[in-house]
Amino acid sequence: CFIDILHIYIYIYIYIYLVVEIHMYIFVICRYIYIYVKLDLGVCMYVCMYVCVYMYLCMMYVYICV
Questions:
Q1: DSSP string covering the chain
Q2: pLDDT-derived band at 29, boundaries 50, 70, 90
Q3: CB 15 within 8 A of CB 56
Q4: Which residues contact 60 (CB under 8 A, 6 or more apart)?
Q5: Which residues span the membrane (predicted)?
Q6: Average pLDDT, the chain
Q7: pLDDT-derived band of residue 38, with 50, 70 and 90 as boundaries?
Q8: What pLDDT is recorded for position 65?
């Protein structure tokens, strides 16, 4: 894999921005699920966090190695 430091910094910055945006939406969605389904908010946030970490790993692999 060819790694360009500048590109990595740009991708990390974009990713952090996306994660902040995504987490805001996830929190709102989780709150609605909690209100209507009475699902535990902690469980929902944990699952959402897991999904975000998985997405992050996939994105880093794609950006660095492709």
A1: ----HHHHHHHHHHHHHHHHHHHHHHHHHHHHHHHHH---HHHHHHHHHHHHHHHHHHHHHHHHH-
A2: confident
A3: yes
A4: 11, 15
A5: 12-34, 41-64
A6: 71
A7: low
A8: 58
